[in-house]
Design brief:
Layout (H helix, E strand, L loop, with lengths): L1 E9 L8 E6 L7 H11 L3 E6 L8 E6 L4 E2 L3 H17 L7 E6 L2 E10 L2 E8 L5 E5 L2 H7 L7 E2 L6 E4 L4 E6 L2 H6 L7 H5 L6 E7 L5 E8 L6 E2 L3 H14 L5 E9 L7 E10 L2 E20 L1
Parallel strand pairs: 2-3, 4-6, 12-13, 14-16
Antiparallel strand pairs: 1-2, 1-18, 3-4, 4-5, 6-7, 7-8, 8-18, 9-11, 10-12, 11-12, 13-14, 14-15, 16-17, 17-18
């Protein structure tokens, strides 16, 4: 049977920027092992598989695979899949869509579509889980993980700590943009530092021109990925954590995150956080995507 696919570059308004994603349409009937093999074949950071929804009130059931395993939730796969899905439906004569809801392992992901002259060019999703904070790590250990000096790890806002809104990352603030550029993952620290805290993913950031403008990099100490050019799920966890530290009890904040510059794949992620009665009640992540390739494969 032939299966259709579309590839897009996400969190970018031009090809060969942002984070590449493969979206497999007509995925019904594929086994988990087949999906994993297809994800390995594409060799992208993530590949998504679009299935009919299990409940009719939702748009689709979406499964997300890295080169190594299935994951419950991720950022750029939701943005890219939403854009491909909406264009596919409307290309077949369906009515214009404003919102989607994807069923995923982490829960329901609500998505708002962004249009320009009637064409879907972007999407904004709401994180499926509330902010949770996990284990902390010392500045010394994280500096070693990133091949930096201890002074390069900033503790002014928070210590290095695991944060999640659907997928856990060790989030750490870096003292300067120069130090962020110099960061390089040290895989030898994985077993000693990262395994005990429950994630191999480090999201390092520093403030930009304003506290709500961030420069970021995301490293993996396990996957062949090494570095990710745009990580919406990590950005969501980070801005949720920063919003929770804000002294205002009720506040809405807009965020702008640049990532992928050091890799030659510049990416722009926009975010919004909502805080009520001292608690972060919603986190939204958005961006654009551009189609790169489409085709079919036989399986």
């Amino acid at each position: 049977m032939q299966r259709r696919y579309v590839t897009v570059d996400v969190f970018s308004d031009r090809v060969f920027g942002g984070n590449p994603l493969a979206v497999v349409l007509d995925a019904q009937g594929l086994t988990t092992a087949q999906m994993q093999a297809i994800a390995i074949e594409f060799n992208y950071p993530e590949t998504t598989f679009v299935l009919p929804p299990r409940a009719l009130e939702y748009s689709a059931h979406v499964r997300i695979f890295t080169r190594r395993s299935e994951i419950p939730f991720a950022g750029h796969p939701n943005v890219g899949t939403a854009i491909v899905f909406a264009r596919e439906r409307e290309g077949k004569g369906g009515p214009p869509l404003d919102r989607l809801v994807f069923e995923e392992a982490a829960g329901l992901v609500a998505i708002r579509l962004i249009r320009e002259q009637g064409v879907v060019i972007g999407a904004e999703f709401t994180a499926p889980e509330s902010l949770t904070l996990g284990s902390k790590a010392s500045a010394t250990d994280i500096a070693e993980c990133l091949s930096l000096n201890q002074a390069d790890i900033s503790l002014s806002n928070h210590p290095p700590q695991v944060a999640s809104v659907g997928l856990p990352f060790l989030v750490t603030e870096i003292a300067s943009h120069d130090a962020l550029r110099r960061a390089k993952p040290n895989a030898l620290t994985r077993e000693r530092v990262m395994l005990p805290i429950g994630t191999n993913l480090i999201y390092a950031y520093c403030p930009g021109a304003t506290p709500q403008e961030l420069h970021a990099r995301m490293f993996s100490l396990l996957d062949g990925l090494v570095e990710d050019p745009a990580t919406g799920s990590a950005a969501a966890a980070t801005i949720a954590h920063l919003a929770s530290l804000n002294l205002e009890s009720d506040v809405e904040m807009a965020w702008r995150i640049e990532q992928g510059v050091e890799m030659g794949r510049p990416s722009l992620i926009t975010g919004r956080t909502e805080k009520r009665n001292g608690a972060v009640t919603a986190v939204h992540i958005g961006g654009f995507a551009v189609q790169v390739m489409s085709g079919v494969f036989d399986l």
